[in-house]
Design a protein that fits this description.
The chain is mainly beta. It contains 3 helices and 12 strands. Residues 25-180 form the Pseudouridine synthase RsuA/RluA-like domain.
Length: 232
């Protein structure tokens, strides 16, 4: 059995975690790009969403995570019982998530479905892989919002497509690897082809933002429809 070694050291993140809503049971936050969701095993990676929030809200726990480079809506539980109730919603796929992304190139179709199983591959760590034999089922939908040209360096520009992404499952790196599988990686994605085209090394971040989250409040049982506009 091979041992996985994570050598990633996160650069300092100077952006704040924005609290969009809070009550005695939950927090809804806007996570900045460039901040870990949970602190890493390496002590140099202690800063994270959870590390910051627990200073102000002792006992809070993350219900789900966003990748380091992804920004946007995250749901946080104020105690273990609330966490369990919310995790059940996620596991039963009762939570609806929408992301906004910029994809490299102009997509031909205005909407579509990506159905491709995703597997862990120790030889590729930290990347995942598409594998029909070893992978777990994964399905994402996309809808095109706009096609335009993104300025990079010295007057050059790249064709990009702004899309809404709808993950129907919740696999690690699902949207990033599915977009690569589609042939249009997310702009700025270092793991899955979003920094290979000329000029993409100047893109400031991963162009992926969690822009909508629908769930049922675990105590009031009222539907919550949270939205946060993409910063790009």
């Amino acid at each position: 059995m091979s041992t996985l070694i994570d050598t990633f050291i996160a650069p300092p993140c100077h952006d704040d975690v924005e609290i969009l809503y809070q009550d005695e049971h939950i927090l809804l936050i806007n996570k900045p790009s460039g901040l870990l969701s949970l602190s890493g095993k390496n002590p140099q990676n202690s800063d994270s969403v959870h590390y910051r929030l627990v200073q102000q809200f002792p006992g809070c726990t993350l219900v789900h995570r966003l990748d380091f480079g992804t920004s946007g809506l995250m749901l946080v539980a104020r105690n273990k019982a609330i966490n369990a109730a919310l995790c059940q919603q996620f596991s039963q796929r009762a939570v609806s998530k929408v992301y906004t992304a910029l994809l490299c190139g102009h997509l031909q179709n205005d909407q579509g479905v990506i159905d491709a199983a995703i597997a862990k591959d120790p030889s590729l760590f930290p990347r995942m892989s598409i594998s029909t034999r070893e992978g777990k089922p994964a399905r994402s939908r996309y809808s095109v919002m706009a096609r335009f040209y993104y300025p990079v360096v010295q007057g050059a520009s790249l064709p990009v497509t702004r899309v809404k992404l709808f993950p129907e499952t919740g696999r690690t790196h699902q949207l990033r690897i599915h977009c690569q599988y589609l042939g249009h990686p997310i702009l700025g994605c270092d793991l899955y082809g979003g920094r290979l085209l000329p000029g993409t090394d100047t893109v400031p971040r991963l162009m992926l933002h969690a822009s909508a989250l629908q769930f049922t409040h675990p105590v009031s049982q009222l539907p919550v429809n949270a939205r946060h506009d993409s910063p790009f």
